[in-house]
Amino acid sequence: QVQLVESGGGLVQAGGSLRLSCAASGYSFSNVNVAWFRQSPGKERDFVAIVRWIGGNTRFADAVKDRFTIARDNGKNMVYLQMSSLKPEDTAVYYCASGGSFFSDDPTAYPYWGLGTQVTVSS
Fold first, then answer.
1. What residues contact 93, with CB distance under 8 A and at least 6 apart?
2. Diameter of the chain by CA atoms?
3. 5-to-11, 64, 109 alpha-carbon distances in Å
4. Alpha-carbon span 60 to 82, nearest angstrom
5. What percent of the chain has pLDDT over 70?
6. Each residue of 84-115: pLDDT tens digit?
7. Which helix (H) or strand (E) holds 41?
8. Cα–Cα dist 67/84, whole Å
9. Half-sphere exposure of 87 (CA within 13 A, CB side)
C-alpha cells in the first residue's frame, strides 16, 4: 500500500523559514518525480515545486522561486521543501505528490498524494 506523509508545517512569522518533509512507505521515490502543491480554502490546488528523481531537475512556481528549494534524500526515501522568506500569501495546506510520468505541474497527473500539512504565515 502506497502512503505519502508530509510533516514540518506550523505557524511562522513572515520572513521566517520552515522545512517540509515528505516520507514514502510502500513506494520508492527512485525513478519517479515528486512534486509539492498547496491549497488555500476556497482556492484551487496550485503547483509549488517538483524534482525529477533521475537527473535531479527542478522547477518552481514563479510565486516561490528564489525563496523555496526542493531536495531529495535517496537513502531515506524522502523529499524536502525548504521554505524561506515566507509571506502571508504562502499560507496553505501543502501536499506532496508522486507517480506522475511527465514532470508535470498539473495535480491531475499524480496518482499518489499525502494528506497535507498546514503552513500558516502570520503578518
1. 9, 38, 39, 40, 116, 117, 118, 119
2. 40
3. 19, 22, 19
4. 12
5. 100
6. 999 999 999 999 999 877 889 999 999 999 99
7. none
8. 5
9. 8
